[in-house]
């Protein structure tokens, strides 16, 4: 199998990691999210985040990422339906000296995760440590600001000490009408020396889709009592004295064994549970709103200048050619621009296109083909013309020197390289490489 690849070698053209996407069968692009109202809403959200998390430093870079819920991580149709057209909205600050900070909310506006890292976060020379109870109080005061009715919705489940007792990890279980929600927890890590929360967030065996369940999604019906359920379990699956080989394989011991099943609380029917680790067990007003920095304002303002998703999708079909289907579209950003990351599929072959979200110029293209026989007979001059025409139509040639084109041919196809020049000087190892295959149909940058 040959991978056909478009390299956008210029730093001005490069994009960051592709964010998670939505599976084709569940992907249904919503109408466009780019508007003045959205811009205002994002400004208010960033102000809220900076206030709650006391972000006062002026980071050199600020990015927003709208990440669609990845249905590959959602194993049930029910959760897929609940998470349809939903996303995780991530607000990211970074700075060479200050470090990195990321806050994520669901598209419904609910807190999802927080993390902060700096070079010197482990250099705290303060040897005095606060107690576990003091740390827990700091954490729960913060969570009360992030999660409405936190004290009613979550209960401390477990805790552990890390880093020679300098860091405390707290684990909370979610309660729905007083009942623990299996396979769903909230974790928080806090330094006992700096009193700073390092990271916290939601964990679920079913991925972020679980965060879109509200209390009303859970039934109150439970005709079966705890005692009746235990009786059914004992009758259907009595404990058997058995031998068990240890995990190390070095010993054998006797155990009382039973398979694990769920019992429906309404009708007493047995339901096989394949996730053996699921069972739960018991155990002041913020400061004034912090104004946005120039970097944050610019990034949010740029939202209103973006092209629509439908336009990006149309452009992707135009570039990829016949037979490809768009399976997902996501929006992310780097220090300079916003980008549409588009995944495609054709038969058993896959492709990926990145477009500048402001002008739909092609940033990168990555296609696969299962061709097994190569016999390139395209003339170099023809390949050069095709490549330049392709660049003229879909790319950005503003910093490319079209007089310094180099060509390299092989049985697989012809590679046309155009270097980047700034102020009439070449920028080493930067530019655009366009690959023309033997059919003169596929162009790989």
- For the record, the count of structural domains works out to 4
Instruction: Give the SSE order as H and E letters.
Output: EHEHEEEHHEEEEHEEEEHHEEEEHEEEE
What is the overall shape?
globular
What is Rg?
A: 27 Å
> Strand content of the residues, in percent?
35-45%
Largest sheet entry: 9 strands, antiparallel
Q: Unreliable stretches, pLDDT < 50, 5 or more residues?
A: 1-35, 273-289
Class based on secondary structure composition and strand pairing: alpha+beta
DSSP E strands, number: 21
Amount of helix? 10-25%
Count of helix runs:
8
- The whole-number mean of residue pLDDT values reads 78
- Separation of the first and last Cα atoms: 18 Å
Pfam families: DUF4901
Keywords: Signal
Protein name: YcdB/YcdC repeated domain-containing protein
Domain YcdB/YcdC repeated: 44-197, 311-440
Please outline the helices and strands.
Elements: E1 2-8, H1 36-52, E2 61-68, H2 77-82, E3 87-95, E4 99-106, E5 111-117, H3 132-146, H4 150-153, E6 154-162, E7 167-176, E8 179-191, E9 197-204, H5 226-236, E10 240-245, E11 252-257, E12 261-263, E13 270-272, H6 294-301, H7 309-320, E14 325-333, E15 338-346, E16 349-356, E17 362-369, H8 380-394, E18 406-409, E19 413-422, E20 425-437, E21 443-444
Antiparallel strand pairs: 1-17, 1-20, 2-3, 3-4, 4-5, 5-9, 6-7, 7-8, 8-9, 10-11, 12-13, 14-15, 15-16, 16-17, 18-19, 19-20, 20-21
Helix pairs in contact: 1-6
Signal peptide: 1-20
Keywords: Signal
Domain YcdB/YcdC repeated: 44-197, 311-440
